Amino acid sequence: MSLYVVLAIFISALITFLLRALPFLLFSGDRRMPDWLSRLGAVLPSAIMAVLIVYCLKGVKSDIIGTGIPSAIAVLVVALSFKWKHNTFLSILSGTAIYMLLLRVL
Residue 75 to residues 45, 67, 69, 86: CA-CA distances in angstroms? Predict the structure, then answer.
């Protein structure tokens, strides 16, 4: 690999790490998060799930049988698993697994 590629990867990794560490650095110790940020943290997982569901269903109209039925079932699995466990990662993982399985089976 060239030096530019290695440098680009290093800079990207460093920026990603700093952006992920920033909230912990800003709100550590006695400093408390603002109320609006706490509310955003409570609402954001549901909003992300809604955006993902809309994105996944955008192409269903063109192929109801091939992808529409598996998509509808996967959306139902995502919604139910998120309502049950409130775990975004688990919901996305289970919905994706069900969708891929249904694509192969149906």
Answer: 15, 12, 10, 15
